[in-house]
Design goal:
By secondary structure, this protein is an alpha/beta fold. It has three domains: about 260 residues, Aconitase, domain 3 (2-Layer Sandwich), CATH 3.30.499; about 140 residues, Aconitase, domain 3; about 160 residues, Aconitase, domain 4 (Alpha-Beta Barrel). The chain contains 19 helices and 25 strands. The strands form six sheets. The chain has a seven-stranded mixed beta sheet with strand order 22-21-20-19-23-24-25, with helices on one face. Strands 4-3-2-5-6 form a five-stranded parallel beta sheet, with helices on both faces. It is globular and about 70 Å long. The two termini are about 35 Å apart. The model has no long low-confidence stretch (mean pLDDT about 95).
């Protein structure tokens, strides 16, 4: 039937026998999750709009961002969700359970061919098991809980065939960092990516999870592996269930098909600031570090812990270096304890925490301080994401070896004596209230002053930093807009209602946080124009009735718009007029579903 894997899954969960790229269909969701981050917003959206649950048995909470409840607002949101769960009969995977996406895989809540959504922007990790998983904002998830389905635009597919033999000691993290170095954050933007090849078929479940989990960092909708017999057997071992194979049609149509030589891949490290700013480890070897972190949804499986333990056994973490390890789930934690891995970690001087997302989600453990240099197995190292310091990304073995050495290195080049620190003489070392009063009337044409922000890949931490994620009142959000974007830290103080933001590629990359949309509504920004948007951000903006449009640089250039000019934008026709010079041009207009949601005042 000419369908790729994602097209098959979407068609099987819609009223359509077949689908093609660009089709917009309602997709039935098999499992609908919300985390402690975003969960309270989901509940409040349901209550405020008088909505009930379509099926509580398909609905779950996962408390993985801050399982220690160390933040008062996280603790309050968790308790609020527990109370709602008790009333509605919703299953809660509480603070003792671990990362929600891993729990879904290991407990059969997601399976080959299934659909899964969560307020976790890495829900597309389900591509590891040929399941369609998506991270979504709180309005999307509320709609899924209430209706059992959400609208989705079928993405185009890219086929990547990994050729050649896998080099010895090349980890799955190295593989995905090599891919990120090739494709960056936006060359695969909006695509469903399928991975094939003789070596790829041998990837373990843990390795598939590592690679799929960083599809978000590539801008992809999802990175999907077709099922293999070994994967089906592993899932049966975990869940006790038999699952069918999920494969693309033999005549499936791909927009692109790429052959990439796996034998040329090398051990890689992502440099601080961007997961796609990757380099061979040889270029950063001997960089002094202050701390290390092993965990996150990318590298918290038992295989990852075993790789770290193999390096740490009989060794000590370097003096002054802190190594923090967080297993992905409590079951993995228990397995590591039974295998003696936890004892190895403790003897090496490691801090081991209870299962969860850890510092990646600004909770639990793993944050670093100003100027601190960390090497991490996480999936993101945006500036400020894991604290105030600098974060390199690498594999578990490299992180463990670096923690022992005191500097970035590989397991085969750990020195007999670690690097030491020396004195420098420098001295100092709730509850959601969604206020719609700020949302402009739904005019289909606006006039406003232009802010030109000439940057690609502006991520959600730059737009609305994760230190403000506990803010749930839109009225309070505007003041923090762009305060983590260099050169625009004073944007919120200078912006005026009606202003228009023009930026470049992949605006809103990264997290699923709704606040990165709502902060613009708080300020009264009339619309945003960008060449492209992060997939989750685009949905969040459309669902919140924040006008966003896309343009081609050559089209926009015709209006000769400069910073501070006043322009008009027609959402229905896509026509733009620069009132300074009366020059006009046309960009992409609202598509029908977007216009319908906008006229409705938002998805809900």
């Amino acid at each position: 039937m000419n369908m790729t894997i994602i097209e098959q899954i979407i068609a099987n969960h819609s009223s359509q026998p077949t689908v093609k790229p660009g089709d917009i269909v309602d997709v039935v969701i098999d499992t609908r999750a919300a985390r402690d981050f975003g969960g309270a917003n989901v509940v409040k959206n349901l209550i405020d709009n008088g909505l009930t649950l379509e099926d509580p048995t398909k609905t779950i909470f996962t408390f993985d961002c801050n399982p220690g409840g160390s933040d008062q607002k996280y603790a309050a949101n968790q308790h609020y969700c527990r109370q709602y769960a008790r009333e509605q009969g919703i299953r809660v995977y509480d603070v003792d359970a671990g990362i929600g996406t891993h729990l879904a895989i290991d407990n059969g809540l997601a399976w080959p061919g299934s659909t899964f959504v969560s307020t976790d922007s890495h829900a597309n990790i389900m591509g590891a098991i040929a399941s369609f998983g998506q991270g979504m904002g709180d309005q999307d998830i509320a709609a899924a809980w209430a209706k059992g389905a959400v609208w989705f635009k079928v993405p185009s597919s890219v086929k990547i065939n990994l050729t050649g033999k896998r080099p010895a000691n090349l980890s799955a993290k190295d593989i995905v960092l090599n891919l990120l170095a090739m494709f960056g954050a936006n060359k695969l933007l909006g695509y469903s990516v399928e991975i094939y090849g003789e070596e790829a078929e041998k990837f373990t479940l843990a390795e598939r999870i590592t690679i799929s989990s960083m599809g978000t960092e590539m801008g992809a909708i999802i990175v999907i592996f077709p099922t293999s017999q070994s994967l089906i057997h592993e899932l049966k071992r975990l869940t006790g269930k038999d699952y069918p194979s999920v494969l693309a049609d033999a005549d499936a149509v791909y927009e692109k098909s790429l052959d990439i030589d796996l034998s040329k891949f090398v051990t890689m490290v992502a440099k601080p600031g961007h997961p796609h700013d990757d380099t061979s480890i040889e270029n950063v070897r001997n960089q002094k570090i202050d701390s290390g972190f092993i965990g996150s949804c990318t590298n918290g499986r038992i295989e990852d812990l075993r790789a770290a333990a193999e390096v740490l056994k009989g060794r000590k973490v370097a003096p002054g270096v802190v190594l923090k390890i967080v297993p992905a789930t409590d079951a993995i934690w228990t397995q590591a304890m039974n295998e003696g891995i936890i004892q190895t970690f403790k003897q090496a001087g490691v801090m081991v925490s209870n299962a969860g997302c850890a510092g990646c989600a600004a909770g639990q453990v793993g944050q670093n301080g100003p100027g601190e240099v960390t090497i991490s197995t996480g999936n993101r190292n945006f500036e400020g994401k894991q604290g105030k310091g600098f974060v390199y990304l690498a594999s578990p073995a490299v992180v463990a070896a670096s923690a022992v050495a005191g500097f970035i290195t590989t397991p085969d080049q750990i020195p007999d004596q670690p690097a030491l620190f020396h004195a420098t003489g420098k001295g100092d070392t709730g509850h959601v209230t969604r206020d719609k009063s700020k949302i402009a009337e739904n005019q289909t044409a606006v006039k406003g002053r232009v802010w030109i922000i000439p940057k690609d890949d502006i991520d959600t931490d730059m737009i609305f930093h994760n230190r403000y994620l506990t803010i749930t009142d839109i009225k309070e959000m505007g003041q923090y807009t762009f305060d983590n974007l260099k050169g625009f830290e004073d944007f919120a103080k200078k912006a005026q209602p009606g202003d228009i933001v023009i930026t470049q590629k992949n605006f809103g990359a990264g997290s699923s946080r709704q606040q990165a949309v709502d902060c613009f509504l708080s300020l009264g920004i009339s619309c945003i124009l960008a060449e492209s948007y992060g997939a989750i951000y685009e949905r969040n903006a459309i669902n919140a009735a924040l006008p966003i449009l896309t343009y081609k640089p050559e089209s926009l250039a015709k209006a000769e718009i400069e910073h501070g000019d006043t322009i008009t934008v027609d959402f229905i026709t896509g026509e733009i007029t620069n009132l300074k010079n009366q020059k006009t041009t046309s960009i992409d207009r609202f598509y029908d579903a977007q216009l319908a949601i906008y006229k409705n005042g938002g998805l809900l």
